[in-house]
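Key idea: predict the complex, not the pieces.
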Amino acid sequence: MRLEKCWFCSSTIYPGHGIQFVRNDAKIFRFCRSKCHKNFKMKRNPRKVKWTKAYRRLHGKDMTQDSTFEFERKRNRPQRYDRINTEKVLQAIPKISKVKATREKDHITKRLSVGRVNRRTEDRRELEQSISLVKAPSVLKEDATLTLPKQKVTVSYAQTENTPMEE
Amino acid sequence: MIQPQTMLNVADNSGARKLMCIRIIGASNQRYAQIGNVIVAVIKEAVPNMSLEKSEVIRAVVVRTRKELKREDGMIIKYDDNAAVIIDQKGNPKGSRIFGAITEELRKFRFTKILSLAPDVL
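Result:
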């Protein structure tokens, strides 16, 4: 039994799922579900379809180069069964996938953190400039408790990493 | 799902290029032929100067169908065309080479010679 990858979306195909299409040049296309199969029949290029892994990797949305990918590379040389080796591999698989998952998550968090910083500075600027939409500036000046103190805060990357991710 | 009047490609080098199915060998009421079934076919197009000629009636075994082949483990395989390999009465292929990928289903039907000649077995 082998867990294959869908040709279109690159998700794993478990046994009993999906369709395999054999072209006349004997190239096999495996699909995880009819959605991918139908897109293939429409002759769509997976590198241009936004929800596929191919697109995400091509456009830098997902991690592309990492040492954890080396473990999953297909090796065509058959290995003699070695019990100790097999046990070690079976123990290592969940550890590797956990490391891979955290690294992928960090990649996305890092990519999105720039936007978070920009949004915070935007919000701060809007608060300073457009506070008149909330209350008239003359009213704010009369009551000392209502006026916002002007604070200059330098937003650095290290600071934003410590704050919890907003939803 | 090959039935009479279905045009099939020929997947070997026996000399024929296109076949038209006339009859399915097996149960008298069998409507469709799947991969591994033997059909009676007439040669519609042939390569010149070879042993097989046009409008000759021969037997062939279906090796590729556009209709999906379902396996017990849930695997579903479908090909891009309908194709057959020309055989004699005993089940030996007439040609010496097979083109294209062949499925393991032929082993159940005892076409081992075809499987051994196949370049790729799924």
